[in-house]
Amino acid sequence: MTNATNISRPLSIEKENIRGLKFPDNEVLASKDAIKIRQSNLERALKLGNLEHNKIKIVFEDSEGVKQVETTVWGVTDKRVILKQGVLIPIHRIHEIK
After folding, report:
1. pTM > 0.85
2. Could you say which of 12, 22, 25, 72 would form a disulfide bridge with 63 (CB–CB 3.0 to 4.6 Å)?
């Protein structure tokens, strides 16, 4: 996929446990096209969350490896995705949105 990390088998995590994770500053996606697609998918996930309360899967990478959370997206800023209870995931650490 995008790098040597195996994102086909991310570790599932509860949204409440994201607060304690450490996120490096580097971007996980290699191409500008992949970054544009991620942004488009985030906007779609936000609409699904706000209008239909649909849960989506976010595959992201913290300092320890690739993880996945199934949740509703409540907001998207220029740098972060906002989940319920004010939980934040830096956008530059998200591999994909399913």
Report:
1. yes
2. 22
